Amino acid sequence: MTISYLRAAAFTAALFAAAPVDAQAGRDSRAVVIARKIANPTGGVIVVAHRGCHNPAPRHGRGSTPENSLTALDQCIAIGVDVMETDVRRSRDGYLVMIHDDTVDRTTDGHGRVADLTLAQLRALRLRENEGGAATASTDQRIVTLDEMLTHGRGKIIFNLDVKDAIYGEVAAAVKQSGDVGQVIVKNYAGIASPLLGDVAPYNATPFIAMLSSGAADGLDLSIVLAQQSAAVHRPVAYEVPRMPSSALPMLAQAARTAGARLWANSLWEGFVTGFGGDLDALRDPDAVWGRLYRGGVSMIQTDEPEALVAYEKRRDPNRPVCEQRPLRLQAPTATRKPHLEHRRECL
Fold first, then answer.
1. Is position 228 within any domain?
2. Block mean pLDDT (10 aa), the chain, length 348
3. Quick one: residue 84, left, alpha or beta (phi over 0 = left, psi -120 to 50 = alpha)?
4. Within-domain flag for 333
5. pTM for this prediction
6. What is the DSSP letter of 118?
7. Structurally, how many domains does the chain consist of?
8. How far is Cα 302 from Cα 214, in angstroms, rounded to an integer?
């Protein structure tokens, strides 16, 4: 067996043993299917939606939704996204809540620091449309807790939690208590002098991504950082690249292949790999941005345009699972009641 195969098998066992099964269909849940794909570094592109699917999804007849909301999660599931990246902070009374900024000003109709507001005060606010801002309309969506987010997406998607406060241990404990270790990945920074993240809590007990940090303008030390982090007993699921020159990508991609892990890059804004372009460029020519990243060794791509990336991946890889309408039995039949069926759009 190869090293990469053994690592993939170990990752699958440790990460996704607890992931739910679709009881009605008698098969693994969609989250398990995605998890297996993540565990295989050569298993194709993993589509990561930045703060959920907040931008419009016209191919599916859907408009914009507030970032980090339950509707942004629903939209991700409907269009076939693999991973929803979402942000976690702590309220004044200790609840873990889903919001990116340290204040509520941009994304809600309220004002103040998240850490200064109780959960009740946060829930009284209405989320603004899409990425927010004073000029955008308020919606009927509210800030939700981590537990509510995980429960809503259980079995349907993988979550990548971007922990914004110094609450890594609390987040890991909450995920474990919820029983959702099987569909959550956390992340933290790793530089040349960082300890092996996989050997320290909470990363020694939960799937995680090492966000590589470079101390050199040419980024050539990133492959060294990656190799160091791969020496841990509990290795990262993937390695996220920072803003970096494209000249550093070949060496970094080779280091990831040697480690038997995936490489993650962001096409957000102008893109994180110099010269490759960002989301707006990808909307015009997806192969010139997303295709080039994939051919360069990147197999996890985070974007604010997930619908377009999923569509490109379906063209590039005809074997990629597609969304379909299928009946789900919601109530078991009895002597006096026929089974109630609902058609729900899911990606399998």
1. yes
2. 47 50 62 95 96 98 98 98 98 98 98 98 98 96 98 97 95 94 94 97 93 96 98 96 97 97 98 98 98 98 98 88 41 39 40
3. beta
4. no
5. 0.88
6. -
7. 1
8. 20
